[in-house]
Structures are given as structure tokens and as C-alpha cells.
Amino acid sequence: MHIHILGICGTFMGGLAVLARAAGHTVTGCDANVYPPMSTQLRDQNIELIEGYSTDQIKLAPDLFVVGNVVTRGNPLMEAILDAHLPYTSGPQWLAQHLLHNRWVLAVAGTHGKTTTSSMLAWILEYAGLAPGFLIGGVPENFGLSARLGHIDGEQTLSPFFVIEADEYDTAFFDKRSKFVHYQPKTAVLNNLEFDHADIFPDLAAIERQFHHLVRIVPRNGLIIVNGCDETLQRVLHQGCWTPVEKFGVDEGWQITTEHDQSQSIRFQGEPQGILHWELLGEHNRMNALAALAAARHAGVPAPLGIEALSHFKNVKRRMELRGIIHDIHIYDDFAHHPTAIQTTLAGLRDKIGSARILAVLEPRSNTMKLGVWQDSLAASLNQADQVFCYAHQMGWDVASALTSLSNKADIHHDLSAMISAITTAAQPGDHILIMSNGSFNGLYDKLLDALRNQINLSS
């Protein structure tokens, strides 16, 4: 089958393209922004990329157009497809029909921690010799790629297991259900649930309904693994549940305790399962670990083996990733963009470094952040930082007013170069600079590293 993917450079659609190519399909695609690293990854897979949505792509005559949710009515290529009555479908629908059919799907959903938990789960299954396929919205460092089909016996047989990061964002302009309802998981993880995606959901109740749609399709012989501390998820389950449930974070389910030597003692229903030794930071990662262990156990991996696997887990790129150390100044890159994620990320770093200074650098660029939904809770989420630098370029609300309670700790900038200069001036040996954005931040990481190097060279 030849598929042509509209919006191919998105994380999900790019991963789908790689999987389809590996499954033997002919894959081409287009996007408005064809640039590395996704463009490089796709071209390395011999996938032809076209810049833009020109109508002459109809002449490629694929068997099917696969449409990403970035595409809207008015898109010239989409309008031509509709006018010509050509076959099209969404990315999640195509994935479910062609690559997930007859596989044991383990889906990880939630506002926070989907990528990390999916990566942990895939690694545990891999460590146990189950060779899972996966599609994850990040790059697990244990694998070095975001998607694979998952073969056993060389390239002859597909592994029965497939791990997928189950996003609640909408499927396509013609299918406003959340992506995850297409995946039909046997094992479903519900990590947590807060309001997000204000561009498509009017309120938290609307997201709860989508999560309940997911709960409705998990079979009776499946398992739902749910954060027992999350009241919103309890409301979701109270709408109706027909599947066994295991909870984590509570005494009657999976529990984790940090010991004096910073090792993690893990129990299930009060029974010790093992001791986890790792270097990941924060309570959020401890909860992610419990969810991954529970899901892997459902797939047949004993908890002690799962704990052993996690001791070798290397985390995900852009999750507290150390990008460099210049003159004893540590620079980290993190994907945090929701106030809860910002707060937990800072708390984890604070636990690790003690009283050392934290310089938090934030780009509030998500759609929900740009709409100002979280402006009242943003300042509190940054309290753990000693100094805050916020890039408020093209924001539709007054960031400075939102951060007033931080007083002189907050430094607001509308020019990236000026912000880099301010950070390099403020940074001192022993500082930890935490950069948080769900985008590329205009290459800030490398620019800041270069600026710090140049400052040191000039002063020496």
C-alpha cells in the first residue's frame, strides 16, 4: 500500500511513517515545516518529503491519504482530496487497523508522564526479552528511536506486545475523539488527569468524558492501572468500569518509599517486590515507575525483573537531560510546560542539588499557556527557583503581572538574545540552569552554552 501522510513531521505522524515503512508500505508525506530532526529521521528511512500542501500532490496517486490533526479545512491539499472524493483516514485509525490489530496494546494515558512511563514500560518489556513494538512521543535513550514495529526471531515474527503513548488530543478535523480511543488497549495506564489543551477542550469535564470513552473499550480480560491519588481519575472510573483495576500510589495497590540511602522500596498490596536503585529525580518519576511496573506485570513480567530493568533505565531525551557543564554551571533541558510539571521538575532538581542556585528558564508556548489559562498558577509553580527568566514572545496576556509575586526573582524578556545575555550575566559557578519548553526554544540550549563558553574565554 502507498500512503501519503499530511502533517508527516509531527511526533506522532512521523513515528507512524517510520512504522508503516518498516511494515513494507510505500510512504510519502508533506508538511508545512520540513526541518530536522524529524526530516532527517524520515529521509534516513527513504521516505520522500514534500514541503507544503500543494494540490499537485494528488498526482502521486497513493492508495490512501493519512491526515494528521494539524490539517484543517481550507488546507489546499485536503480540499482537493475532498473535491476528488479520494480515500483518506486519520493517523490513529490507520495505525489501529494496519499495525495494532491482533496485538496486545499497552496504552499509557494522562496529562503528565506519558512519554516517560511509556519509555519505562517498553524498556521493561525489552529487558525481559519480549521485544515490544512502540510509538512514543519522545526518544527513550535506551532505544535511541521513538518508534519501532517490534520483531522476535530476527525480522520474521512481530512481537505480540505494542506500547503506545496514548494522547488525549483530538484525532483529526473530521474525528474529534481523542486519539487513544482508536488503540483498543488490553492494558491501559491512567497516570493523572488535569485540565489541558484549552484550544480543543472547554473544561475538565470534557476531558474526563474522553478518558471514560477509553475506559469503556478496555476488555474484561484486560487491566486498567490508575493513579489512586488522583481524584479526577476516580470520577472517571465512577462513570462506569467493566475491567479489573489496579491502583498505584496507595497502600492497597502499588507503593514506593524512598529509603535513607535514596534507594526505592517497592511494594504491591503490602508485599515487598524489590529495591530500585536509579538516578531519576522527583516524585513524578517514582509514580511513573509504579505504573510501568504494574503494566509490565500484566504482560507477564514479574515485578522483581521489572525493578531490575528500571535500574538500567536511561530516561528520555528532553526529560531533565543534562546538555552541558560550563565552568561548573549545569544546563538541563526539560519538556515541562504545565504548571504541575514545572513544579514537580523543579522540586526534583531541588531534592538533588540541595541549596545550590536554580535558574529557571521558561518558554510558555503551549496552546493552553498562550491562552492564559494557567497564568494564575504559573508563579507558584516556579517558587523553587532562585531566579526565573521567562521568554514572553508573542504572548496574548501580561506575563509580568502573572509573575508579580516572584518579585525581583522574575526577569521577563521579549528578545531571545537579550535573555541569553541576562542569563550568562547572572550565572555563577555551581548554578543549575533548567530550561523548560515543549518546543525547540529557537535553539536556546546551544546558544546559551556557546555564550557561557565565550564569557569564560573572555574573562580568562
Automatic annotation (TrEMBL):
Species in which this protein is naturally found: Nitrosomonas eutropha (strain DSM 101675 / C91 / Nm57)
Names of the cofactor(s): Mg(2+)
Family affiliation: Belongs to the MurCDEF family. Mpl subfamily.
Residue span, Mur ligase C-terminal domain: 318-439
All copies of domain Mur ligase central, residue ranges: 108-296
One example GO MF annotation: UDP-N-acetylmuramate-L-alanyl-gamma-D-glutamyl-meso-2,6-diaminoheptanedioate ligase activity
Biochemical pathway: Cell wall biogenesis; peptidoglycan recycling
Known catalytic reactions: UDP-N-acetyl-alpha-D-muramate + L-alanyl-gamma-D-glutamyl-meso-2,6-diaminopimelate + ATP = UDP-N-acetyl-alpha-D-muramoyl-L-alanyl-gamma-D-glutamyl-meso-2,6-diaminopimelate + ADP + phosphate + H(+)
Domain Mur ligase N-terminal catalytic: 2-101
Broad enzyme group: ligase
Protein name per its UniProtKB record: UDP-N-acetylmuramate--L-alanyl-gamma-D-glutamyl-meso-2,6-diaminoheptandioate ligase
Cited HAMAP family: Mpl
Positions of ATP binding: G110, T111, H112, G113, K114, T115, T116
Keywords recorded for this protein, A-Z: ATP-binding, Cell cycle, Cell division, Cell shape, Cell wall biogenesis/degradation, Ligase, Magnesium, Nucleotide-binding, Peptidoglycan synthesis
PANTHER family found in the cross-reference section: UDP-N-ACETYLMURAMATE--L-ALANINE LIGASE-RELATED, UDP-N-ACETYLMURAMATE--L-ALANYL-GAMMA-D-GLUTAMYL-MESO-2,6-DIAMINOHEPTANDIOATE LIGASE
Functional description taken from the UniProt entry: Reutilizes the intact tripeptide L-alanyl-gamma-D-glutamyl-meso-diaminopimelate by linking it to UDP-N-acetylmuramate.
This enzyme's EC code(s): 6.3.2.45
Highest taxon listed in the record's lineage: Bacteria
GO term, biological process aspect, one: peptidoglycan biosynthetic process
Family annotation (NCBIfam families): mpl
The encoding gene: mpl
